[in-house]
Amino acid sequence: MIAISSDFTDIAEKVEAGQRLTREDGMRLFDADLFTLGELANCVRERMHGDVAYYTHTLHLNYSNACVLSCGLCAFYRPLDHKEAYTFSLEEIAKKAEAAGKMGVREFHITGGLNPKLPFEYYEGMFRTLKRIVPAATVKAFTSVEIDFFSKLFRLSVDEVFQRLKAAGMDCMPGGGAEILGKRVRQIICPEKISGERWIEVQRQAHLNGVPTNATMLYGHVETVEERIDHMLAIRALQDETQGVQAFVPLSYHAEGTAFPDIPPTTGFEDLKVYAISRLMLDNVPHIKLLWTYVGTKMIQVALDFGVDDVGSTNMEERIVKAAGANHYDAPSVDELTWMIQRAGRVPKLIDSLYGAAHAN
């Protein structure tokens, strides 16, 4: 029996037996002490992954910051005619891919603004270029928000968008744009973005088209604890249906440069609670993933005992989180990530976007 506070014995019994936790259980866990949460989450984490901790060698291609939306939480976007707006040409992308390939990159992570000036062929050409230059690397591209945008802009069904992008080289999707899925929160923080229901629907179509995805949760702004749990349960229900979610990625809100700059940052105590509860509630999602850029080495090392099994990636050229004020060095090397994981008492495993084993050059 896991040694925890007697107030949570019933939940501990469920966890040990591999039984699903309820919404009420999830709400109660936010009142649990940190020791209890760590014990419970680590039990599940080690049952699923043992001592292994995963990481990826990644080049981020934030191909354009020009965007027709103005989401309050985003410090990255610029209006289309802004002097700081940019878009990479396919030639620039090819040069970045060539350099990344020489460094052993095994994942291209591609997201950007909603830029109506780019034709659909630009994205197809991007994927084909990447696959030609670094064929061993996987292409993780576009959030549900971007896919919905392409569907409307180019008058294609979501299925057609996925079919064309897969044919060009798309392997899987990141989980951005989910924020908090609840309607109340989205009306405050991103009223122009697609609804939570639409975000889920695009994810569903991705899975039905053979495109696995991640799912994020951006917390620490205007959401309630109840809305956090409901967000997790919406992801869990989708996973019951499709089995297409590879990883859940909790992201703490960075306020700098956004429309809500006065929201205080979350504490490490709160972050660890969110990670642990995510692992406990999302019993059908294989991985709980952090982004090193968000939290830094010390927090990730501790988080590996609070349900997290994926520490993210080398994050070469990541721009979106950096724009919001994250102050961690954005390109740790493979050796640095390996060292970090080993010092935390875990076994590092280098992977590609699909959690297949990868080997650095």
What can you tell me about this protein's structure?
There is one protein chain. The chain has helices at residues 9-17, 23-29, 34-49, 90-102, 120-133, 144-153, 158-168, 183-189, 196-208, 225-242, 268-281, 292-303, 320-323, 334-343, and strands at 52-56, 58-61, 107-110, 138-141, 213-219, 245-252, 287-288, 310-313, 347-351. It is α/β, with parallel strands linked by helices and 361 residues long. The protein has one domain: Alpha-Beta Barrel (TIM Barrel). The strands form three sheets. The protein has a three-stranded parallel β-sheet. Strand 6, helix 11 (268-281) and strand 7 (287-288) form a beta-alpha-beta unit. It is globular. The relative contact order is 0.16. Residues 318-326 have low confidence and may be disordered.
Short description:
By secondary structure, the chain is of the alpha/beta class. It is built from 14 helices and nine strands.
The CATH superfamily bears the name Aldolase class I
Percent range for β-strand residues: 5-15%
Overall CATH architecture: Alpha-Beta Barrel
Task: Summarize the amount of helix as a percent range.
Answer: 40-55%
Q: What are the segments in which pLDDT stays under 50 over at least 5 consecutive residues? A: 318-326
Beginning-to-end CA distance, first to last residue: 45 Å
Q: How many independent structural domains?
A: 1
The backbone outline, from C-alpha atoms, is globular
CATH class: Alpha Beta
Q: Which descriptors would you attach to this protein?
A:
361 residues; TIM Barrel; 3-stranded parallel β-sheet; 9 strands
